[in-house]
Write a structure and sequence with these properties.
This protein is α/β, with parallel strands linked by helices. It has one domain: Rossmann fold. The protein has eleven helices and nine strands. It has a seven-stranded mixed beta sheet, sandwiched between helices. Strand 2, helix 5 and strand 3 form a beta-alpha-beta unit. Helix 1 packs antiparallel against helix 10 and helix 2 runs parallel beside helix 5. The N terminus is likely disordered.
Amino acid sequence: MTSKTKQSTTRTTHEIAEAIAPTWERRRPQIEQVTTPVREWLVRELAPGEGDVILELAAGVGDTGFDVAEQIGEQGRLISSDFSHGMLEAARRRGAERGTDNVDYRLIDAERIELDDDSVDGVVCRFGYMLMDDTSKALAETRRVLRPGGRLALAVWGPPERNPFFAIVGMKLVEAGHLPPPEPPPASGIFSMASEQRIRKLLEDAGFGETRIAELEVRFPKLDVEEYIRFTADTAGPVGLAVRELSEEDREALTAEMAKAFGPFATGDGYELPGVALCAAAS
């Protein structure tokens, strides 16, 4: 592993989020296209009511929360939050674009939520808990701020063998020495909550009772290998930063390896990869 590439493995989660915020915002339409089934499930299972106060954690560009805001009406309030200033500003721009007025934008660390006990009617978090340094603490904080009867809706990515879009590039970077092997749970990471059993255990330990879990299939847009690598560099956290830091020679080698691994997903002039998300609703 080169010293330059190694930098991507030692950055904090916050530094990673700030680094990818500009490109995540630019890729928003593609991200939302892929994750539409997940976003729709979360909003439906959260079941927000007129006048509710809803907290979105790790909101990113914020579209899931903004869909919730449409349902809670002018008397309701969405708290769109992220611990990255860059992500929060991107959400603010997206909210203005959508004309969403019933929203407060707040910098919030999900492991230390600066809200009173029993202060919100619902919490939604799409692809956030799995990346948090202490998921158990974040879920306990979520339970604390929820009012009695309040509901949590969350989504995480399923197992790597069912998410080649993420797994293949990570595996190839590890094999080439550009990233260390991922640590097993409870270490954070894209696949750290990739089983129904682990999700249920984390929610139970945080004080949640009834939990419903669903498996949702998604499909990534048809891309060639080079565009896939660019998409990864723009959106995939530490993996993306490792790609950005590759030398031209190493990037060419990665492209060749990816083309071989993508063979089973070839569809004419590109590759179309499947994915699976695990979604949970708990109260």
